[in-house]
Specification:
Layout (H helix, E strand, L loop, with lengths): L3 E6 L8 H11 L3 H8 L3 H11 L3 E5 L1 E3 L4 E3 L1 H8 L5 E6 L8 H12 L3 E4 L1 H4 L9 H10 L3 E4 L18 H7 L5 E4 L7 H10 L3 E4 L8 H4 L10 E2 L10 H9 L5 H16 L4
Parallel strand pairs: 1-2, 2-5, 5-6, 6-7, 7-8, 8-9, 9-10
Antiparallel strand pairs: 3-4
Length: about 280
């Protein structure tokens, strides 16, 4: 069974805003800078880190939040991920400010082989069900590219939580039934129930448990095991310091081993065509 982390950032230390590095230092109790430099020095060093954490494949994400956390471009993520099939690159587009967003998405696939798209409604201030975005979803559906949406709360500057309500994804799931929709953070804070219900209701909607302490999952989602086919493991590294610890905490949950295997990797393997 592969372990697949659906949510890793490869933003270099110098690409983050200073406030974020200070916040991360307070969170982890140590300076995050040396760790970022060590792990992200090259694709090989990241892969060695993933080996040490027990991760076989990882979705690597750009940082598209210049007023919040920082900027890591699609081009750098795409180039970084070309070093290994174990690194699955997602692009990021601000649909309100990117000219020709559909052409931009096509280019990300043809030039770098991107496998998915990450959107940040809470940072870029749009509702996901805005009809202006429908051509982008239509193209992603045709390309077979999952679209990951940040849902729920955020402590970062300039984020507006109202845009993170998972309920806005319902229309997208109905109008684009072949589009794989990933709810990053599963509605964290306000809307766990909505995120869970949507992923039960719609076969094309998944929950990404990134940023949620695994030990608390059954508190947030008492019926988690009933939805085991549409839950994806993610760490949000480097926001958390140990992916291995999160994997261990999930393995200790009082749910069946079959459910743990699906959450930790088999569900993502199915989405990305990875042989288990």
């Amino acid at each position: 069974m592969p372990i697949i982390d659906i949510h890793i950032h490869i933003t270099q230390a110098e690409e983050y805003r200073d406030w974020f590095l200070e916040w991360a230092k307070r969170q982890h109790g140590h300076d995050i800078l040396p760790r970022l430099h060590e792990v992200l020095a090259s694709p090989d060093s990241l892969l060695r880190f993933l080996d040490g954490e027990g991760v076989d494949y990882a979705v690597v994400l750009p940082e598209n939040n210049p007023t919040a956390t920082g900027v890591c471009t699609n081009e750098r993520v795409g180039s970084f991920a070309q070093a290994s099939e174990r690194l699955i690159p997602f692009a990021s587009i601000n649909p309100l400010t990117t000219p020709n967003a559909v052409e931009n998405l096509d280019r990300s696939v043809s030039e770098y082989g991107f496998r998915g798209l990450k959107l940040y409604p809470t940072y870029h201030h749009f509702y996901p069900n805005d009809e202006r975005l429908f051509p982008l979803y239509d193209r992603a559906q045709d390309l077979g590219m999952p679209v990951m949406f940040h849902t729920g709360s955020s402590v970062f500057p300039n984020s507006l939580i109202k845009y993170g309500d998972p309920l806005t994804l319902d229309e997208i799931a109905v109008f684009f039934p072949r589009l794989i929709i990933i709810q990053a953070h599963s509605g964290r804070g306000f809307w766990y129930d909505r995120a869970f219900f949507l992923s039960v209701l719609h076969e094309n909607v998944y929950m990404d448990i990134t940023g949620l302490p695994p030990k608390n999952l059954l508190k947030y989602f008492p019926d988690l095991e009933k939805n085991q086919d549409r839950v994806l493991f993610g760490s949000d590294w480097p926001v958390i310091s140990s992916i291995r610890d999160n994997i261990g905490a999930l393995r200790r949950l009082p749910i069946r081993e079959e459910a743990k295997s699906k959450i930790l990797g088999l569900n993502a393997a199915r989405l990305f065509g990875i042989k288990a």
